[in-house]
Amino acid sequence: MKKKPIRHRKSNASKKAGLPPGSITYIGKERSEAAILEMISYNPQELSKVKYDTCAELHKNMQPNSVNWINVDGIHNYQLINEFHDIFNLDNLLLEDVSNTNQRPKVEEYENYLFLSLKMLRYDEVEKTIDSEQISLVLSKDYVISFQEKTGDVFGHIRERIEAPKGQIRSKKNDYLFYSLIDSIVDNYFIAIENIGNDLEDLEDEIFNDPSQKSLQKIHAYKNILLVLRRSIYPLRESVNKLLRDNDKFISPKNIKYFNDVHDHTIQIIDILESYRDVVSGLKDSYLSSLSLKMNQVMQVLTIMATIFIPLTFISGIYGMNFETIPELKWEYGYYYFWAISIVIGIGLLFYFKKKKWL
Amino acid sequence: MKKKPIRHRKSNASKKAGLPPGSITYIGKERSEAAILEMISYNPQELSKVKYDTCAELHKNMQPNSVNWINVDGIHNYQLINEFHDIFNLDNLLLEDVSNTNQRPKVEEYENYLFLSLKMLRYDEVEKTIDSEQISLVLSKDYVISFQEKTGDVFGHIRERIEAPKGQIRSKKNDYLFYSLIDSIVDNYFIAIENIGNDLEDLEDEIFNDPSQKSLQKIHAYKNILLVLRRSIYPLRESVNKLLRDNDKFISPKNIKYFNDVHDHTIQIIDILESYRDVVSGLKDSYLSSLSLKMNQVMQVLTIMATIFIPLTFISGIYGMNFETIPELKWEYGYYYFWAISIVIGIGLLFYFKKKKWL
Amino acid sequence: MKKKPIRHRKSNASKKAGLPPGSITYIGKERSEAAILEMISYNPQELSKVKYDTCAELHKNMQPNSVNWINVDGIHNYQLINEFHDIFNLDNLLLEDVSNTNQRPKVEEYENYLFLSLKMLRYDEVEKTIDSEQISLVLSKDYVISFQEKTGDVFGHIRERIEAPKGQIRSKKNDYLFYSLIDSIVDNYFIAIENIGNDLEDLEDEIFNDPSQKSLQKIHAYKNILLVLRRSIYPLRESVNKLLRDNDKFISPKNIKYFNDVHDHTIQIIDILESYRDVVSGLKDSYLSSLSLKMNQVMQVLTIMATIFIPLTFISGIYGMNFETIPELKWEYGYYYFWAISIVIGIGLLFYFKKKKWL
Amino acid sequence: MKKKPIRHRKSNASKKAGLPPGSITYIGKERSEAAILEMISYNPQELSKVKYDTCAELHKNMQPNSVNWINVDGIHNYQLINEFHDIFNLDNLLLEDVSNTNQRPKVEEYENYLFLSLKMLRYDEVEKTIDSEQISLVLSKDYVISFQEKTGDVFGHIRERIEAPKGQIRSKKNDYLFYSLIDSIVDNYFIAIENIGNDLEDLEDEIFNDPSQKSLQKIHAYKNILLVLRRSIYPLRESVNKLLRDNDKFISPKNIKYFNDVHDHTIQIIDILESYRDVVSGLKDSYLSSLSLKMNQVMQVLTIMATIFIPLTFISGIYGMNFETIPELKWEYGYYYFWAISIVIGIGLLFYFKKKKWL
Amino acid sequence: MKKKPIRHRKSNASKKAGLPPGSITYIGKERSEAAILEMISYNPQELSKVKYDTCAELHKNMQPNSVNWINVDGIHNYQLINEFHDIFNLDNLLLEDVSNTNQRPKVEEYENYLFLSLKMLRYDEVEKTIDSEQISLVLSKDYVISFQEKTGDVFGHIRERIEAPKGQIRSKKNDYLFYSLIDSIVDNYFIAIENIGNDLEDLEDEIFNDPSQKSLQKIHAYKNILLVLRRSIYPLRESVNKLLRDNDKFISPKNIKYFNDVHDHTIQIIDILESYRDVVSGLKDSYLSSLSLKMNQVMQVLTIMATIFIPLTFISGIYGMNFETIPELKWEYGYYYFWAISIVIGIGLLFYFKKKKWL
């Protein structure tokens, strides 16, 4: 379990080495599903939601006075991604980033559109891993495109709100949809983090009660998960910050406050992550000191037993000797004296250990 | 006990995921008390203090030439909070932050008012936890609003000073009241910190005298408490700093010095917090080396006992053997020689241990 | 001993909570001595040094063409401090900082004067604690005021130089006196630090030779002392830097170089402090590994003794058995063979331990 | 194995001490191969690839309307490097940096050319070391020069793309070739890092299953390798960043996006490096706690054995004594009682250890 | 050995406390050698190298059209240093810094000259200490002054190059000499660092093979040496950087590249220092885990011996008992059965330990 966060990270990065720039190379997990291309066009009055086979077809059906949300599930489909270059005129370097599932979250402003790459994170509670999916968003005057690795996303709430005839979102523009998509992804980070928090508490109990080598492996696994989260969220914060600073071209001033809100959320997530990092490093300390404590207890038991019986055994050894003249052996109550002395020594040592707080 | 600071943190954050922005959702502990809405209006001549049921009613009674301090206890009352949007025209995103008890301290300037969110912290000396309450302050030309999670606050001194007919505060404006509320909250941080400092000293004594696994749990508990404090106070410092830099619109220049003073106090608190962090991490080291020391002592006892008696037992074993010819057994004073040798060996080893400083 | 630096820090900070701003509240140790108010007025020709009972009286006697150095010993005297507000027109917030012995070093420019708060530090070599005293300096065109907690200071050299008729200082202005006071305090930091350095070397020897739990307590005590120093000196460096950048109003350009020099000294002190921090954390490592080493030695002694005698004891046990037919017991030289075997085993094991470098 | 990364670093740095600046001194490994000087000149129509013996000869053959890529394998050839000063007018300080294999990656703009020094890194999977080679690139209006330490590089793909008649690269200018060379080197970093990642996972398994002192040496070796990588890649990021900011003179604006892409890659590599650092430091913790765990197990075995048999041995010792009157010895079933008691004690202790989870 | 770097640091710093500013007080080691005052004047045509007794005499002999390099060995000579104030008009604060051997490296621009203070470091390979000497350089239009603590320096190469009639340096100006002196000192840092690197490798071998308390002391000694180096080189880098940024007045633009080169070297040295810091902290970990490993081995030996022989001794004890009826004692082959059982138990336990990898 533990290694997945690392493994996922570097998968196939070397596939790209040596290719010319702007090479659209999908480097994520191999997928066989067909890619899905769908457009939702809406304005306060109208709404249409249609799947298309080709980009060209879709492009013809774009509504001039509506918000056109084009969603692509399946960035492993090279031909489809390439069509966006031909038909939507998206830059090849941008599309290279779209297909590169290792892409670090970033924002880039092109002449006619704004590009934001970020991660959709879901915490798999059974496997205790982070399921990270690359999402790329393109915002232009005429459309919003969202590229996803696979079917299934966190945009369900947004679709519902669009489909509700009186949803606030229906009366808003592209930039608000763009914001809503980002916000939806960021809100899901909170859920992932909350689950991790619960798991960390369980782990804490385990470590205090019964620390084993497995506990240590779990600690490392969570440390790695937090690293993956950090790597996704820190650059996102910078990106959103850059959006706030620079992009008055694609985002209307009155919507800036929404992006401000997203920025606040990323800061809050980072705060929690940092505190979890502290928790995890505290867990490691607890683990190590649990080991030490246990060792101490083991040693105390050994010492108590040995310290009590070693001198007694010596005494019994003395009277097992075969010297011709050992006067005590002839005493009538010698054997009983032996017991008396043994019991006195034993009880004396027990008191001594009591005083030392070893018992 | 130990986990509360974490648990409190993430409570219900996920409730908000998927909701449209500006959704006023209370995510703190569930509360059933009725919310309280009160306005104190004062100027040098007059003073009124009235509870209202609705915002509308309150709004009608606002005094144009007075400082109007509106205090709301109970941000879990969705209807009430919403009225502030309708009647005072407060932005929905602002009210969302008011209801979000996880909100990070922040300051935001809107067109007609200034918004400051901060935490009221009280250290519960019995439970050894930080009781954190979300306070939101709104400052406009006409009023100051304070939103609290629940009844009971640290503003008692301010109410008294307002009620005193010749209080300096009576002759001051909104911005001074706004300052006084912040100052009052920040002053209470000092009390919380002082209590923690006392507890840390007790813990230090405990660790040096009788370290147990409970001590470690306490160390982690205090570490978490300090984390909670940091998360509340660092952003507050930034916020107050931002107030100092940017907001000449709502704060008159001659009162800037008061906010400067608050800023100084937050820096001082952060200084103390940082030093407590060092203290806590020093405690962990002390705990671990206390364990090591104890282990050393246990091992020394074991080694002393074993080293003295193991050779003696061997000697006694020799003369317990049944060889037909063991000349020593026939010696008249053999048994006494045995004792002499045993005592010499024993005392010799004791001197050796003395020299090694094990005794 | 160890806790004083912490304890001193937070003493009574909570006394101030709830008071209106500008409340002059002395929060240091309780003192009963009478406060002393003295003014030294000098110019190249003249010199007067008089004690006064009230501020008003002193104010009347200020010399217009001289440097007037007003020194106050005893900031616990509320009435006296208050008089400075009435007669010298010092701001109440400034005087609040003067009386607050927890005040962080800072510089503040007011309209008619410059305020610098800093710490006078003396290392008590017997108690191994830092004796920290709050000094506040006010520089205006007409006077320099120095507020001290108690009688006794590090300004003796300055007084001597003033009293020497041809002292360079006599021909200089207020700003040079202001500099001299700061310089004198900063120079004393070097002495405190030198003493700590010597103590750290002694502690290092102790830890390598005979580590005990007391050593660890001392390490923590020095760590705390260094923390106190840091908290005093870092903000002072910032303050002096701020003086250098901003205050051409009270400091003449040709004296800037002196303040530059002080700034250099604070940087140098911080350098040394940082290296002492490293030394102290190295001491802790040494302490822990001293413990481990000692444990190793103890264990080796135990293992050597047990490993040699346990098999020998077993052999002696064999020939102590009462089986009817143990042929060896009948051998003429059986007993001597036993000794031979025992000695061979014993020496063999000693060689083995020699090879393992345990001896 | 472990020390190579350090050793390589400081080799011969002192050779340069005392020489006048601009002294071209090769300080890397001694090499005896002849240096190779080759020029590839291309434009969309034409392509030539010729080896030359001297710089002068090469210079005569430079094509005015082509991209001229001059590649030098063998910076240990002092005469050859010097010719670049005489014929290409390259600054002596630049050539000093070219020959200094310890040169930190840097970019420098000269009047007529741009100089970039960086490292070509290859991970030797057998030796587990980083093979670092110094590459220096010079970009001018007329040519691109690449200086390498030895034959063999990562530019194979670029040569292939140049030789392909319709390669995009053929229609581009010097700056694009310059970018391609950098990109090619940076892409190879990903391969090195991926290999290290795999090795780290193997090491992790080893440490959890069978930690030995060799594991620790390996951990240090990887730590050193990561240090070498950091030292190569951090300054490269800065350098590329500087290129992005300042150098519109040699890089056409429409190609800036390619350098932006390289910059992104360096950031991504740094991200991975940082996470590997965490992994390596986690491995060290695992190693230490593996040792502790093993110690605990050893101690438990010892304690169980000793605790069970020491009291039993005492009992057997009692009935080995030779007192004249030991009544139990006369009992008919005394011997069987002895066994019964021994078995009861033995089993009782086993249950006790079971309860303590030592078994 | 270990403490010298600290001791050297703070020597006599307190001597200066209480003196007026600009007091030229030598605080280094006491020296009795006579100070040496020498001037080398050169231009492309001429060269003179003369020792002088007084500054005044030297000043008269300065050559107007030559580079005048004045070298002073012996800053402990108060009168001589003071003459520089009288005759060369050097500021007293500057001369105070010249005599203060604890002076942190710094650069300062005065009206007529530029002042640079730095450290000449030599690593004493026998004593394993850093020999640090304070060098102060003054650059004006007319001369370069170098102040040294004592005779013997690293400027031999420069003198040789000056004396060589066609040396490049002869045709250059003051600023180039100034650069050459700095460069020469910085180049020597590389030698010091290379030696330390070699020593660290030896120490690493020692720790892996035979860790003792001396190893730990050595680790601390190297840590302190690296601290001393850091404290000398970090501020030097800043100073050179400041030179690069600000001082076009004394350094001609065409020579800026040389200072750039020195700056690069300081960065490279800092890089190496940082990596050595990591190496040293890795050594401490290795030391501690070497101790743990050794402890584990000791414990394993003890446990193996005890576990094998303790039960056997118990068995032999059984048949040493004197019960009247122990049937086994009567068996013909009882003694041989005993041996058989003992050998089976012994071998069984050995297999068990083999399986546990303790053997």
Automatic annotation (TrEMBL), chains A, B, C, D, E:
Membrane-topology descriptor: Multi-pass membrane protein
Gene3D superfamilies: CorA soluble domain-like (3.30.460.20), Magnesium transport protein CorA, transmembrane region (1.20.58.340)
Transmembrane segment boundaries: 301-321, 333-353
Record localization: Cell membrane; Membrane
Coiled-coil stretches noted in the UniProt entry, renumbered to this chain: none
UniProt record similarity statement: Belongs to the CorA metal ion transporter (MIT) (TC 1.A.35) family.
Name assigned to this protein: Magnesium transport protein CorA
Organism: Aureibaculum flavum
Lineage: Bacteria, Pseudomonadati, Bacteroidota, Flavobacteriia, Flavobacteriales
